Amino acid sequence: MSATSFAAAETRAPAQPPLPFGPHGRRAPSPWLLALPAGIVLALLPAMVTGAIVLGAAAAAVLLARPRWALYLLALTVPYQSVYDVKVYGASVTVTEGVVILLLVGWLHQLATGRVVPPRRSAVAGAAAGLLVALLLSTLVAGDLVLSAKELLKWLELMAALLVGTSLLAAAHQRRVMLVWLLAAGASQALLGIIQSVARIGPEHFTIAGVLMRAYGTFEQPNPFGGFLGLSLPLAVALSVFGLPPGMPRRLAHAATATIGVALLLTLSRGAWLGQLAGIAVVVLTASPAARHAVATFGVLLAILFAGLWPILPPALTERAASVVVSAFDLGGLRYATVTAENWAVLERLSQWYAGWQMFAGNPILGVGIGNYTEAYDAYRLDQWPVALGHAHNHYLTIAAEAGILGFAAYSTFWAAVFFAGSRAYRRAPDRFSRVVALGTIGSLAAFNIHNLFDVLFVHGMGVTVGLLLALLHTVHQGSAEAPAQTRAEQS
């Protein structure tokens, strides 16, 4: 060995085995020793509990490593979150909240390491942020901040699904997978609802003429169940009729459309039916010039025919229809209305409209505080209607009552931005499939908004589904190009 190589060898630090000692000369504890208490605890628990903990930990680890999988899973957790929940300070914490947290943590880690693209700026995200600020301002006058926090959490979850979705659904095949999960969630719930109706599984007051049961899925009530199905049906119609070539995917889309459609009929939810008529009309009339011509022709004829037949229609039908319209514009007359078995459902809904309008009229700037409709109800209700239903049976009126004119203006701006972005995505879509996805998503969101005229559908985690649909709408105009190179390793 030369003198030079010998000197270099002398100066290199020799490899040292790891010392089994911690600082100050104490022996470092073995990792197995640290895991021993956890193992003892698991061994003492019942086998089913231990298995659930182990499986839950493994699933959490997988979702943290693969946040896109967590995003897909969110579509399925929304309808099934009520199967098991945990009460924390009176609020239900479900699997949806757990998956949202895992999604955010996993996504933020990959964002920090450059493994996913950051979300692009959009008018919809900006409008959602403005709405969140307006709702936060209303908490300054809220009587119960816990109720406000529960309502704000729904909007935070929607924004999380929107922002993360715009980052993780950049490629066309990722959007296709997201569509499969969304339609699978809707179709599986629809199948459950059909089984409930045919087998008459449910509360007795849901029975229809002693033969069928109103379908309600895992939503406990037919109206929100119909609202959830309505987030899938126009999208399924668009794909099955206009978007997919002949083959197995199209047949599956037909099956999903038929299943969801039958279940929605079995809800007997008039608000859901009206919303679906509007949503499907948006899809069909936009995609088909022939349909537009038919509606323009026969719609006018039908209106003329109905007006001509009105005097000879059964009085029970005409009086009921007229009473609904008149009562809606004469809420003050509810004080003197006689409640009967026939008009009870209509008057109950109108009584909530009355209370909501009185809340807004008495608190026009900030409302009574987001989420505080029930808290403030007693001060604004009609005497003969003492029970608050949690909302004003109209989401626009509920927002105005709880967040005032600022909240209502921000909410209206948000949806205006959504439909403007949707029309732009439809016009700029690079291929037929992307165009149909944009159109179906617009139809689903239109149905959601029409149904919200008669109910409040921001329940049961449905805001997360809305956020996923908004993410699809935002990313679809980017085309079917593959995701950037830095995200290819994470594609699933």
Strand content: under 5%
| Widest sheet: strand ordering | 1-2
Order of helices and strands: HHHHEEHHHHEEHHHHHHHHHHHH
Distance between the termini: 55 Å
Supply the helix-strand structural class. Answer: mainly alpha
Output mean pLDDT: 82
Helix run count: 20
User: How many domains make up the 3D coordinates?
Assistant: 1
Which percent range fits the helix content?
55-70%
Number of separate strands = 4
Shape: globular
Radius of gyration: 28 Å
Largest sheet: 2 strands, antiparallel
Residue runs with pLDDT of under 50 for 5 or more positions: 1-25, 31-35, 480-492
Tags for this model:
492 residues, 67% helix, mainly alpha, two-stranded antiparallel ribbon, disordered N terminus, disordered C terminus
Write up what this structure looks like.
With 492 residues, this protein is mainly alpha-helical. It has one domain. It has 20 helices and four strands. The strands form two sheets. It has a two-stranded antiparallel ribbon with strand order 1-2. It has a two-stranded antiparallel ribbon with strand order 3-4. The longest helix is centred in the last third of the chain and has 34 residues, at 395-428. The chain is globular and about 70 Å long. The protein starts with a helix and ends with a helix.
